[in-house]
């Protein structure tokens, strides 16, 4: 379980910051363990997990619009997302949704462009324009990330700011087994990217909580309008996710039947397989 120990010693999201109120006690589950946290009057966060009836302290930090916890004494650094430091961006949570699949399943669905015209009809895609055009995927060994670039898709309503159909440009980053970041065309500022983060909390091997954080350039829509648009998208994905069988993600190469549209998902599975990850996966 070496790779799973690395997972245990990393940072994990447990809430959107805007949902964490001071002087309240919160309880959730993370990697099959009960965790508790609260914000003290001085603003510091107290967090602990229960191990054989004993509460053990956890590290906590606020970053990228989310609250992160770690079981480790010295967890690895969080991945960089410099756009969150840009003062003119809106950081808005699109909600946290509990889903009966492993976190790995939720991430793979997020990476799938082929379903846009069929699941997100007249928003992120529409028939007959169903083709996923060729794009590039690399596993960056230095960063230990899966990165897909030059992704393109014709979309009737690419975002809350879109006023007409456009060909949307995408870049995907998978920075951790349960973390994916999407950079997409920003209609009001075409020279920049909107950033959509799927921070998945692995509750246990068959359940997860998807925390969706938007980091957008948008001075037109209200927070509620941004939230409503993204929740519509996730609500459509939810119907796909809850019907996934099996709940965990198969990683064996023999279980894959890739086509060109699946290049990113195939690379993601290979990256997980080579890391020897077991938690939330089926390896045989």
| Beta content | 35-45%
**CATH classification class:** Alpha Beta
State Rg. Answer: 19 Å
What are the segments in which pLDDT stays under 50 over at least 5 consecutive residues? none
Reported by name, the CATH topology is Naphthalene 1,2-dioxygenase Alpha Subunit, Chain A, domain 1
Q: How many structural domains does the protein architecture include?
A: 1
Strand order of the largest sheet: 8-14-13-12-11-10-9
What is the general shape?
A: globular
Sheet having the most strands: 7 strands, antiparallel
Q: Helix content range of the residues, please?
A: 10-25%
Describe this structure in words.
With 284 residues, the protein is α+β, with helices and mostly antiparallel strands. It has one domain: Naphthalene 1,2-dioxygenase Alpha Subunit, Chain A, domain 1. It is 18% helix and 37% strand. The chain has five helices and 16 strands. The strands form four sheets. It has a seven-stranded antiparallel β-sheet. The chain has a four-stranded antiparallel β-sheet with strand order 2-3-4-5, with no helix packed on it.
Give a quick precis of the structure.
One of its GO terms (biological process) is methylation. The protein has one domain (2-9, 79-282): Naphthalene 1,2-dioxygenase Alpha Subunit, Chain A, domain 1, CATH 3.90.380.10.
